TrEMBL record:
It comes from Devosia insulae DS-56. This is GDP-fucose synthetase. It holds the Pfam family Epimerase. Gene3D superfamilies: NAD(P)-binding Rossmann-like Domain, UDP-galactose 4-epimerase, domain 1. InterPro entries: Epimerase_deHydtase (IPR001509), NAD(P)-bd_dom_sf (IPR036291). GO terms for molecular function: GDP-L-fucose synthase activity. Residues 3-229 form the NAD-dependent epimerase/dehydratase domain.
Amino acid sequence: MNILVTGASGFLGTALCAFLERQGAVLTRLNSRNCDLTRADSLPAAAPDRYDLIFHLAAWTQAGDFCLRHPGEQWIINQKINTHVLDFWARQQPQAKLVFMGTSCAYAPGSDLRETEYMAGEPIDSLYTYAMTKRMLFQGARALHRQFGLNYLCAVPSTLYGPGYHTDGRQMHFIFDLIRKIIRGKEFGEPVVLWGDGHQKREIVLVDDFVRILWSLTNTFDNDIFNIGAGEEFSIRTFADQISAIVGYDASQIQYDTSRYVGATSKCLNVDKAKAAVPYELTALSEGLESTIRWFYSAGAHHS
């Protein structure tokens, strides 16, 4: 099977490519260094083969308050990226199935976060632009399917975690930021200050679990959308307590800064649809955190 992957050097892309190689796939890996997706001519030059599958993971975003600071740029850059991928798919790779990532922030606050609500209501204001570019990507795939019969699958992930996260100085998703801060508190005696009051809740899923479930859905369903997550959420304080116990840090020393941006106070995907569709086994949170913390130490990620 010949497979094209955009965003191949990212956290999810690296894990997905490793998995696909184990399945015997022949991969074309694209990243910002070998293909500028904001240019219309880059994809045809970088991906001249005929593909069975296209995994579109690339997006211009970061964790933390990045979306608050770059809404205009996010709209222009991500719309260019997604439009060029959709155009390349329709014009040059119509035989390929396009598998692309949605975002949980596309769901309106107060919704049940079910797939039927992905395009309904207004996303949270702080993440509005990014959420809408992802909705437009979904609509683009639906439109091309309707007119030309192209096949797609949209996967909406909760926050992914696990070994191998980027250490290039970008803002980290909350779970990695918690681990880094708590390890540095333990190893270097730095104060551990977490954003918000610690009662905001989050859901995480191990990246390897996500990839395995995504592959099962890809092989089974066409022209559909699936949430992939843990289906349960925990408070930041709960995550911090578990990480502190693994690291050996006194969690009572953690400080909470209620003046800092925390985004949504709760965000847990409804995963009933995916659970009913494919085998849905998830790694226990304690086991996943332990493996991620071991990687932090071995990679020296807590020094960044």
